């Protein structure tokens, strides 16, 4: 997936001279995950800016660049380091289009590697998506495949809205074909990645392949689970989820982020409001717990995994 | 270690006596003192009327700039049309100099809008209430100016500078210090104009800094200039030089205009809980408008001075009337307006929320409450 993102950035830099990348260590080093590898050499220091170390500065200056007509793509080095930029993101970036009554849009993309499962130290495995999804004026995207990473990143950069682009870091090394010419799914649409009729299993990012494994196990037992990849966490495509639940009657939602106030709770509320009489079982969530992200020796059991998903699916199917 | 306190540079003293100094632009470059006086008087009237409108319940709040007109008109009159301004929320006289309709300043404080004007019309961005946040926007904008090639060409119609305003309180914000660092290492065409008005609500300058604000610039690696903020001629000279350095590729400057906020922080503040009326009176005696008036009308005054002042008085009254009428005529927003422009295209779920809200507002309240 890292290569797909690199190709996506390259394509946008070639297509639009106003695209500027800005972030810590993204020049010579190519970023700590090498997503910007080789771009500085091919597009100059002016367009691939190794920034001073300061996340508020990265986002704040990206806002100014956007006001001057540029399309900045920020890289925040790790999920846990985005918080110094939260003031700029929530009070400035998210509101300016509205405050200017639609006159000025800020086409800023903020790329953030997110999530755990790579044995990292503190602050390097967080899932901060709910903070952003809770903020009106932002789009929040999270791809799960290389093709989606390529497509969604291009759509995010071309879009006039500010976009928080969450890259599931344990998927950086997952392999997948990318066809730049393939027709892209709309960026605010969820996608059914495995059809089924027994239960709807909704997730996003690094948990999509985990959900597919769980669905494969259940299929061997004769139960066809429909897996939905949300892709866009704000706005949420609840139409696709509700349509699925109307057919299956059961819903399990999974995310790495802690439970309270998460995307899962929001989706559950929407589904029960719109499809209450189609539900055969309570909506269940499989999530990270309401604790600080654990020391990495504990993360394998702390993170939602195939077994925890299977348990939740079994519980739902028993109703 | 503390730096030696630097006396703010001044050429026009509180009695209206002008000292000859090479740094004051002369000839065709000289500040038009009559125009500057007019700008200070009329922008002060905007401030005075806005306070009155708040007292009458027409505005929810107003942050007065009384006493800071010298700093603001000095800086504002040094702008060229292609320069870009990032204000705080107190730059009413700079907005005046940039040509923003003062009626449009009132909307934010009347509760009819969260913005009020098109920032592109006058290159004057929206007021920023979160302290220091705009300094980084100025830095980013200046990065864009560099990439556009609009610095150091020598073409006065092309070269641009970015002018960011901040107060003494903002010096303590991390974002301001990031902005200084970024502007320095990239040698950006930005001028940070700090009006040190001595008070961040109730916190005196000594809470923010052990050294004069201008002293900090050297640690970041660019010039810092300390100027008498109540001397419009000195402020103009300093701002002009800094903006010209920025446009020509010479990089950033921090200007510290030492002035005084003579009114409470806003109409909701009670400044006598943290400072004395005697100090306020002391600063009133150093008023920027009075000292320029003393210079212009010194002795018998030049021919025509009485006509000029009479015309200005009439202009003030017309402006005040226009503000009062304009304030009351500001359009009340529609209940559907909060839903607009959050994203480029309204998401389906937000459409549902809007429809629900509009149905409620249209009379769905019923008779149960």
Automatic annotation (TrEMBL), chain B:
GO terms for biological process: branched-chain amino acid catabolic process. InterPro entries: Alpha-ketoacid_DH_E1_comp, DH_E1, THDP-binding. It catalyses: N(6)-[(R)-lipoyl]-L-lysyl-[protein] + 3-methyl-2-oxobutanoate + H(+) = N(6)-[(R)-S(8)-2-methylpropanoyldihydrolipoyl]-L-lysyl-[protein] + CO2. Residues 38-297 form the Dehydrogenase E1 component domain. It is an enzyme of class 1 (oxidoreductase). Its cofactor is thiamine diphosphate. Keywords: Oxidoreductase, Thiamine pyrophosphate. One of its GO terms (molecular function) is branched-chain 2-oxo acid dehydrogenase activity. Its EC number is 1.2.4.4. Belongs to the BCKDHA family. PANTHER family: 2-OXOISOVALERATE DEHYDROGENASE SUBUNIT ALPHA, MITOCHONDRIAL. The branched-chain alpha-keto dehydrogenase complex catalyzes the overall conversion of alpha-keto acids to acyl-CoA and CO(2). It contains multiple copies of three enzymatic components: branched-chain alpha-keto acid decarboxylase (E1), lipoamide acyltransferase (E2) and lipoamide dehydrogenase (E3). This is 2-oxoisovalerate dehydrogenase subunit alpha. It comes from Umezawaea endophytica.
């Amino acid at each position: 997936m890292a290569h797909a993102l690199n190709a996506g950035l390259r394509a946008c830099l070639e297509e639009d001279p106003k695209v500027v990348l800005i972030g810590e260590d993204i020049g010579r080093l190519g970023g700590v995950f090498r997503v910007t590898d080789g771009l500085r050499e091919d597009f100059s220091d002016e367009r691939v800016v190794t920034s001073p170390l300061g996340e508020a500065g990265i986002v704040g200056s990206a806002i100014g660049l956007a006001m001057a007509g540029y399309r900045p793509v920020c890289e925040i080095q790790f999920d846990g380091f985005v918080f110094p930029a939260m003031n700029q993101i929530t009070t400035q970036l998210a509101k300016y289009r509205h405050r200017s009554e639609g006159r000025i849009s800020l086409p800023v993309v903020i790329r953030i590697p997110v999530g755990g499962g790579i044995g990292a130290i503190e602050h390097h495995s967080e899932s901060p998506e709910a903070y952003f999804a809770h903020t009106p004026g932002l789009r929040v995207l999270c791809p799960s495949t290389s093709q989606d990473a390529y497509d969604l990143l291009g759509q995010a950069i071309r879009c006039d809205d500010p976009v928080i682009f969450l890259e599931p870091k344990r998927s950086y090394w997952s392999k997948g074909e990318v066809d730049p010419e393939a027709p892209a799914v709309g960026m605010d649409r969820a996608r059914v990645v495995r059809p089924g009729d027994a239960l709807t299993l909704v997730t996003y990012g690094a948990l999509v392949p985990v959900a597919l494994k769980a669905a494969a196990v259940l299929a061997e037992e004769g139960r066809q689970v429909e897996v939905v990849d949300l892709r866009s966490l704000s706005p949420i495509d609840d139409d696709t989820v509700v349509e699925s639940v109307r057919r299956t009657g059961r819903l399990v939602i999974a995310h790495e982020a802690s439970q309270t106030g998460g995307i899962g709770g929001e989706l559950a509320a929407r589904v029960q409001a719109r499809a209450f009489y189609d539900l055969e079982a309570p909506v269940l969530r499989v999530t990270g717990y309401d604790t600080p992200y654990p020391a990495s020796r504990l993360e394998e059991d702390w993170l939602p995994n195939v077994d925890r998903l299977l348990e939740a699916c079994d519980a739902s199917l028993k109703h | 270690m503390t730096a030696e306190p630097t006396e703010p540079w001044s050429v026009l003293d509180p009695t209206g006596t002008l000292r000859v100094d090479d740094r004051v632009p002369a000839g065709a470059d000289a500040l038009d003192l009559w125009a500057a006086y007019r700008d200070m008087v009329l922008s002060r009237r905007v401030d005075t009327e806005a306070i009155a409108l708040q007292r009458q319940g027409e505005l929810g709040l107003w942050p007065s700039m009384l006493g800071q007109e010298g700093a603001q008109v000095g800086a504002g009159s040094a702008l060229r049309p292609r320069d870009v301004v990032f204000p705080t929320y107190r730059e009413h006289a700079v907005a005046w100099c940039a040509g923003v309709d003062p009626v449009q300043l009132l909307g934010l404080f009347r509760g009819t809008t969260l913005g009020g004007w098109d920032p592109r019309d006058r290159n004057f961005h929206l007021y920023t209430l979160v302290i220091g946040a705009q300094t980084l926007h100025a830095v980013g904008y200046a990065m864009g100016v560099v990439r556009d090639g609009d610095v150091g060409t020598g073409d006065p119609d092309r070269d641009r500078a970015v002018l960011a305003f901040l107060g003494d309180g903002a010096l303590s914000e991390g974002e301001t210090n990031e902005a200084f660092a970024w502007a320095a290492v990239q040698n950006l065409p930005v001028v940070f104009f700090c009006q040190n008005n001595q008070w961040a609500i109730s916190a005196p300058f000594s809470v923010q800094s052990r050294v004069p604000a201008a002293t900090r610039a050297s640690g970041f690696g660019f010039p810092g200039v300390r100027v008498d903020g109540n001397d419009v001629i000195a402020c103009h000279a300093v701002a002009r030089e800094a903006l010209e350095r920025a446009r020509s590729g010479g990089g950033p400057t921090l200007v510290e205009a030492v002035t005084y906020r003579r009114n409470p922080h806003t109409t909701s503040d009670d400044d006598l809980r943290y400072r004395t009326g005697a100090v306020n009176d002391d600063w009133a005696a150093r008023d920027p408008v009075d000292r320029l008036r003393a210079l212009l009308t010194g002795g018998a005054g030049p021919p025509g001075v009485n006509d000029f002042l009479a015309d200005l008085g009439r202009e003030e009254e017309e402006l005040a009337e226009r503000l009062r009428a304009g304030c009351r005529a500001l359009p009340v927003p529609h209940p559907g307006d909060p839903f607009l422009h959050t994203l480029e295209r309204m998401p389906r779920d937000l459409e549902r929320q809007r429809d629900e809200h509009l149905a409620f507002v249209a009379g769905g309240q019923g008779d149960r409450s």
